[in-house]
Fold:
Amino acid sequence: MFLILSLLFSAINPSIILLIGDGFGMEQMKAIEEKGYPWTFFEGFSVLDTRNPYCGVPDSASSITAILSGVFTLNGYIGIAINGKEYKTVGEIAKEKGYFVGVVTDVEIYNATTAGMFSHLKNRNDYEKIIDFLKKSNFDLFIGQSNLNIEKNFIKIDEEKDYLDYVKFALNKFKNKKPFFLLIELGRIDWVCHENDKENLKKELNKAKKVIEFLIDYYLKNRDFILYITADHETGGFNLKDFSFKTKTHTTEPVPIFSTDKFEEFLINQPHLNREILKKIRGE
Ligand SMILES: [Zn+2]
Structure:
């Protein structure tokens, strides 16, 4: 009886792991492919257009707002539309629905991508205010870097340790907490692509590969959550063939999105990831 009930509930409110690579465009993603794997594994594949309709090239604030709050906005804005209206984030809605919510990143927890889970402000660099939003969010777990004081539910990453261990720690903590929503960020791909730093990009892509392969294995063992893998935007105009870059800034390339569930529709040209995830969370 309980098993059926819990299955029923998980069918209505599935647990979700959303992996976002910052600056993790199609070419960067292809670099971690091996004989078609892991890409051939996913049921759903599409592309997200997170371009900024007001000035073209997105930053991590406007693109994460498109993804997590479902609205296009100005660069620098998080969880807020161009007219100043606040749009709830997927993380906030999940929390309202009784989900256990966690945010894991290898960079500062108050950077735009993770701030997009719980913040509403017009200045992505107002870290003190983002930490206030973080504390008010009542999320259950935060893992990342911080130079600011965060007492609650926060684990500071030790740079000497393997990032995958923190991902495993978060999964272990959420294992028996259903439903859960976990955002995992790979934040340094963007940084090294800005620098056009080939050696460190190889290191970051290697880290990404380890995390993604672990998540796929974890999915195959458990199959009780939906796994999404995507990016906020592409950085560097990277070309895998000759491992070259075209620019030191972000580009307007659409970014891939993979899902262990089939997509009901092709997602391009709209901030649809939010709608897809909301549909799952709301049980539509
Ligand atoms: Zn960037």
User: Anything to note?
Assistant: The chain has one domain: 13-282. The two ends are 24 Å apart (CA to CA). Residues 13-282 form a domain with the Alkaline Phosphatase, subunit A fold (CATH 3.40.720.10).
